[in-house]
Write a structure and sequence with these properties.
The complex is a heterodimer of chains A (383) and B (301).
Chain A (H helix, E strand, L loop, with lengths): L2 H22 L2 H18 L1 H14 L3 E5 L2 H12 L4 E4 L3 H6 L1 H7 L3 E4 L2 H9 L15 H12 L7 H18 L2 E4 L3 E3 L5 E5 L3 H7 L3 E7 L3 E2 L2 H14 L7 E5 L21 E7 L3 H5 L15 H5 L1 H6 L4 E2 L2 E2 H12 L1 H8 L7 H5 L6 H19 L1
Parallel strand pairs in A: 1-10, 2-3, 2-4, 4-7, 5-8, 7-10
Antiparallel strand pairs in A: 5-6, 6-9, 11-12
Chain B lengths: L1 H11 L8 H4 L12 E4 L3 H17 L6 H14 L8 H20 L5 E2 L8 H5 L3 H17 L4 E4 L2 H14 L6 E4 L10 E2 L5 E2 L3 H6 L3 H8 L8 H4 L16 H16 L4 E4 L2 H10 L5 E4 H4 E2 L1
Helix pairs in contact in B: 3-4, 3-13, 12-13
Classes of the chains: A alpha/beta (383), B alpha/beta (301).
């Protein structure tokens, strides 16, 4: 099956379903408007919210780290993890962006992706093609072949069988893991709570079973309150075509109990350590940029991808993984600079579908046009 | 690419090295009339076949697979080697007929307007390619040209020209005071007849999603009972023809066009477009599979 067939099938599955969900649960669109408003406030006052979050995480018994660069972020996480550990990860685009898994492996850690798509990509040494389903380009036959080649198990080319075999393998790793690393759909500045949306159930285990939980994501995920973070979870899931999501996880510190005399002690059954590593990596500079700031509002629902004629034609060649598609061109500019994003911006047809379907109403065509302008200018200057 | 476009603008008044005479061939024998309100082609319909030829040259040079730089180098070499692009005569004849249809539709509808003897190019391609400073300079020259000619209102015939005049010029020329209307807004849907039935509409991205004309086009074509599928022809989900990137990424442009044609062809073998870029792009990709008609070719008063 080619990319063309894969994306067409996915389009026909997810696009009508998303329209149907938005029609059935119209309040989600109200929530989206509310989220746009509050996130604009956060982006315009990012440093203040980072500081508020720092205090909240520490108040909740966690440790907070702000990493200016990708290198600083992976080194921070590597120091927390240490050497020779078993690490399990939830799907995390910032981990891909910064090369976290590879760095942890260099320290002699055994690291496993627990999201099925990411697990298959890890086994095959491949890159993600889509934010939500990173192995969107992979066929069932390829998935079965990867399991056979890398794990030595015969699995029929059937998604359920592949998922079952991955579950058996990963369950054992999760139960024995020393460290769980996740991203975040939203992080609440008022409480230090992290909200994560998922359907597989892996994130719920990764956040709760290992004795150490590290949250590793970008500063733009901050929202003012826990209620707003839950709104983000609902909006992201609905615009990704999966509402209600099977799980919404909230984590606000190490596990604890107050069952004896109401005295709160930690740990209880869950992790004893809660670390929040927030990555800047160009985001704070983007927040001050007259064009790029709006891209920070993206909630990673991946809806723009399916409506983009360029992404539908070439997949992950449009943008730079993990940031592909229309949002990916903007995010390549934020995280890797105009030089990296420019050639992709020139492939944009300015069709405008991305802006129409964005829950945050991000004017993506305008931003991509600005990236194109800056790139054209830089190429002209360099000549 | 910038050098190519700028040098062509200086030498030919157009973004491609093209004999500017082709821009006015369509109006031979038509009176200029008053210039307060003018029908303005910006040579877009006339240029589109020339872009096709230029892209053909790139593809023949084998640059399509070599990335942006290779493609640009190829077209640059060809152009500076004095390969002046000449549109195919049959295509030029057709675009001339399209412009005459628009002219007649407006005249029969009682719209009064004139024609400029020397029409400037709007600079849309410069803007779309991101050469914004160059575009701004060019736009000021075009505005001055209009002012010298006494133009107060322009009637556009294509979405690219309409978009830059209405939405972009005022960003760079604060005093821009020329009214911009599209010919599709001046035709009475109640009076118009549609020459075909059960066709599928391929919307211009600019008209549908940037200029809010998705519904207007359907008002004009309603009596032709167009075939609709929200996932193919809806305002949010209808796709691009690929044409806007054909000068920088011809292989990708052609791929997008082929995929678009394939989706449209599932609904009808007749595709109606309203943009010269779509006409050229889908016309080329749809050859033998669908018939691509311009909106003005279907409307009758």
């Amino acid at each position: 099956m080619s990319w063309r067939e894969a994306i067409e099938r996915a389009f026909l599955n997810v696009v009508p379903r998303t329209y149907e969900l938005l029609s059935r649960y119209p309040y989600v669109q109200e929530l989206a408007r509310e989220i746009r408003k509050v996130r604009e406030g956060v982006v315009k006052n990012l440093d203040r919210y980072i500081e508020e979050l720092r205090k909240s995480v520490e108040r909740a018994g966690g440790r907070f780290y702000l990493a200016e660069t990708a290198e600083e972020a992976v080194e921070t996480a590597a120091r927390i993890v240490g050497r020779g550990k078993l690490v399990v990860m939830g799907k995390n685009n910032v981990a891909v962006e910064t090369g976290l898994r590879r760095r942890l492996e260099q320290e002699g850690n055994e690291v496993w992706e627990t999201d099925l798509g990411m697990f298959l990509l890890q086994l095959s040494g491949d890159e993600p093609s889509y934010l939500i389903s990173p192995a969107l380009h992979m066929t069932r036959e390829t998935a079965a072949e990867v399991l056979k080649r890398r794990l030595g198990v015969d699995v029929p080319p059937d998604p359920a069988a592949v998922a079952q075999r991955a579950r058996e393998f990963l369950r054992e790793k999760i139960v024995k893991a020393d460290v769980g690393i996740t991203g975040a759909n939203a992080i609440a500045a008022d409480t230090g709570a992290v909200v994560l949306v998922e359907n597989e159930g892996n994130i719920r285990m990764v956040t709760a079973i290992p004795p150490v939980h590290i949250v590793y994501d970008g500063v733009e995920k901050i929202v003012p309150t826990l209620v707003h973070a839950l709104y983000v979870a609902c909006v992201q899931a609905a615009y990704a075509g999966a509402y209600p999501p099977t799980y919404i996880n909230v984590t606000a510190g190490p596990s604890s109990t107050a069952d004896i005399e109401k005295q709160r002690v930690s740990p209880a059954q869950g992790p004893r350590e809660y670390h929040v590593v927030l990555v800047d990596g160009g985001r704070r500079r983007a927040a001050r940029d007259p064009a790029l700031w709006e891209a920070l509002l993206c909630i990673r629902c991946g809806r723009c991808h399916f409506h983009c004629p360029v992404y539908r034609a070439v997949g992950r060649e449009f943008g730079r993984p993990p940031y592909t598609g229309p949002m990916g061109v903007m995010w390549t500019a934020i995280t890797r600079g105009i030089e990296a994003a420019g050639p992709h911006a020139f492939r944009c047809t300015h069709a405008g579908n991305c802006r129409e379907v964005c829950p945050m109403g991000i004017d993506t065509p305008r931003i991509i046009h600005e990236i194109r302008r800056r790139y054209a200018l830089s190429v002209a200057i360099l000549r | 690419m910038r050098d190519l476009v700028l040098s062509s603008l200086r030498e030919y008044g157009l973004p491609l090295p093209l004999d500017k005479g082709v821009c006015s061939e369509w109006r031979r024998g038509l009176p200029s009339g008053p210039s307060r309100r003018v029908l303005y082609t910006s040579c877009m319909y006339q240029l589109a076949p020339a872009i096709s030829r230029a892209v053909g040259a790139i593809e023949r040079a084998g640059a399509a697979g070599g990335g942006l730089r290779a493609a640009l180098a190829s077209i640059g070499a060809k152009i500076f080697g004095r390969l002046v692009v000449r549109p195919d005569e049959r295509e030029l004849e057709r675009t001339g007929a399209i412009l005459r249809s628009i002219y007649s539709l407006l005249r029969r509808g009682g719209v009064e307007f004139g024609l400029l003897d020397d029409e400037p190019y709007s600079g849309a391609l410069l803007y779309e390619l991101g050469f914004v400073d160059d575009f701004a300079r060019h736009a000021r020259e075009v505005y001055a040209h209009f002012k010298r000619a006494g133009v107060r209102e322009v009637i556009t015939v294509d979405p690219h020209t309409h978009y830059v005049l209405e939405r972009v010029y005022p960003q760079f020329i604060p005093e821009f005071d020329i009214k911009v209307v599209s010919y599709i807004d001046l035709i009475d849907p109640a009076a118009v007849k549609v020459r075909a039935r059960h066709f599928v509409i391929h919307d211009s991205c600019l008209y549908a999603r940037f200029l809010d004309r998705h519904a207007r086009v359907r008002e004009l074509l309603a009596s032709g009972d167009p075939v609709e599928d929200p996932l193919v022809t809806g305002r949010e989900s209808s796709g691009c023809c690929g044409g806007p990137i054909e000068s920088v990424a011809p292989a990708l442009s052609a791929k997008i066009a082929r995929e678009r044609v394939e989706r449209l062809s599932r609904l009808s073998r007749t595709v109606v477009v309203m943009c010269p870029i779509c006409l050229a792009s889908l016309g080329r990709a749809g050859s033998g599979l669908v018939e691509v008609r311009d909106l003005s070719e279907l409307l009758e008063l």
